[in-house]
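In response to a reviewer's request, we include the raw inputs and outputs for one of the modeled complexes. The two entities were modeled together in a single run.
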Amino acid sequence: MPSQPRPGTIIRVWTIVFLFIALKAVGNLSLAWGMKHFPQVMSANPLPYVLAMFNPFVALGVLALILALLMRMALLSLADLSYVLPVTAIGYVIAAFLGKTFLSEVVSGQRWLGTALIFAGAALVSSTAPSSTGNQSQ
Amino acid sequence: MKWILVTLMVAATVLSDLLQSYEMKRAGRQSVDARGLMRLLREIARRRFLILAIGCMAVSFFSFMALVQTEPLSFAVPASAASFVLETLLAKVLLRERIGVRRAVGAVIVLCGVILVGG
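The model returned the following structure tokens for the whole complex.
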């Protein structure tokens, strides 16, 4: 039988899921915005990347993505990998919305269908206990 | 070349996530307030597998960047979703996670969604 989650674990898990998704979305958007307005294109030379770090949007993006990484690690201390993967895929849905809203990207019918499937699958997975391996101890 | 990059990207992602999950389960429950984040940074510094996991993440990231320079995103994103299947299977086998019917069906539905979003 799966171990019963501690009281408050579900709230804690979902708080961190929310923070992870928000930081990842803000980080990616800020990074994309900063890089779009940076004159250098991709190259093997690392200097343009170092210079890009001085762009405030790029720096904010990198900081948000580092925080998102820490959130995901904290999440993995509370929940199974097989739970975290589908639940955090909701980030793809947010990316589609942000792309449409801020970057004026066209979101096709196929992409909206994919988005709906991600929501449905994540909802199904989130109805299971986050941890099945008993890693609930401090 | 593209399949070498896909293999490298998927292998690095899978290894990174398995190592992170393994080490974070051993580290115990973490919190994300200021004190919790400092504790988490200390855990990363003293656990070699977590440092290795971050290295794998970097390999995966640069493989993805190299892939999208030559291949369309509609190929790269669904190809990266292969790691999703492998990780779920290996989480069951190596990390001894219990994956019931609901979680397995949900994961397959999410996978289909990710492929459609990328396609």
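As requested, we also summarize the result in words. Residues 9-126 of chain A form one domain. The two ends of chain A are 21 Å apart (CA to CA).
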